Amino acid sequence: MLNLERLRTLDALARHGSVSGAAEGMHVTTSAVSQQMAKLEREVGQQLLAKQGRGVRLTDAGRLLADHAARILSQVEVAQSDIDAQRGRVVGEVRLGAFPTAARGLFPAALRTLRDSHPELRVQSRELEPEAAIRAVVRGDLDLAVVLDWSNKRLPVPGGLAKEHLLDDAADVAMPAGHPLAGRSEVDLEEFADDPWVSWPEGEFCYEWLVFTLRSKGIEPHIAHLAGEHHTQLALIAGGLGVCVAPRLGRGPVPEGVAVVPVRHKMRRHIHAVWRTDADRRPSIRAAVRALAAAGKAVPVTPERSNRR
Predict the structure, then answer these.
(1) Fewer Cβ neighbours under 10 Å: the N or C end of the chain?
(2) Residue 298: helix, strand or coil by DSSP?
(3) Which DSSP string corresponds to 117-169?
């Protein structure tokens, strides 16, 4: 009889492509992964892993069993969802991920609601950028992720995932308080064609969106500084080092010396929850979506503005 946990380990190794990746995805040590794989090889009586340089690869038998493992684990997920749905209780564990401003702007209220309403539910959360979070949901490393796209640039969502809209998040332009446009009630992006920009890191979805948006308006952006955290971006703006797009969700107090001004043609991020369709009937998933949606409705729609020198 094949051991289910060892099949999970094989599935994780096949999805992540390395022992270290599987260990990270399963939140165990690399030695634990190696031990489980050694036991699985003894169970099936065949070699499942072969050395490849400093790492390992799946043998033909390993790939064959990994394909079966993926189907078995998917059926187990469906069975668990059906049992949970039949029982109707929000129990067990749910693993959530979100990009940083959603984690800051939605998780405190949503997780508090889940804790108070469903004390038997264990919740784990982590920060992940949208594309990485979607991959984690597809792999099974997360049960649910909060992701985003923009009105003019959509984030592809693979088949097999369900999606529910949580809220729309407006974005402003942040600039030094002494900027000539700081006192305006609205601005156009084209007015910042000659300004240096502070942006998210290259390769991230929001960086690609910013470059795409500015170029669509005839601006070849001069991106002077890259920072993943919005608080770091705003600190650079306060230092007079450029301008940036500043979404409102999770933004918090605007630093001294920074002005935020709405854009005339609204820029909006669409915030969604995504999860695997084979887990759609799990009460814990539905409870988490409801808690996140309620937290989204409580997000203030009026921006906090600052124009202090």
Answers:
(1) N
(2) coil
(3) H-TTEEEEEEE--HHHHHHHHHHTS-SEEEEEEETTBPPP--TTEEEEEEEEE
Q: Report which residue type is found at 190.
A: E
Q: How far apart are CA 93 and CA 140, in angstroms?
A: 13
Confidence at residue 308, expressed as pLDDT on a 0 to 100 scale: 47
Token pair listed for 294:
């309620």
Name the residue among 283, 293, 298, 277 with its Cα closest to residue 118.
283
39 token code pair: 């036991």
| DSSP one-letter code for 274 | E
The answer to whether 174 and 246 are in contact (CB under 8 A) is: yes
User: Which alpha helices (H) appear in 145-303, and where do they start and end?
Assistant: 205-216, 230-238, 283-297
Joined together, the tokens standing for residue 18 give 């390395």
Q: Residue 23 above 90 pLDDT?
A: no
Please classify residue 168 by burial: count the beta carbons closer than 10 Å to its beta carbon, then call 0-12 exposed, 13-18 middle and 19+ buried: middle
| CA dist., res. 248 & res. 105, Å (int) | 9
- For residue 85, give the nearest of 270, 284, 283 by alpha carbon: 283
Mean pLDDT of the chain: 89
**Closest-CA residue to 90 (of 54, 53, 117):** 117
CA triple 246-251-252, angle to 5 deg: 140
pLDDT tens per residue, range 51-98: 887 778 889 888 889 888 888 877 777 777 666 655 667 888 999 999
Question: Radius of gyration of the chain from Cα atoms?
Answer: 23
Do 58 and 14 touch, CB atoms closer than 8 A? Answer: yes
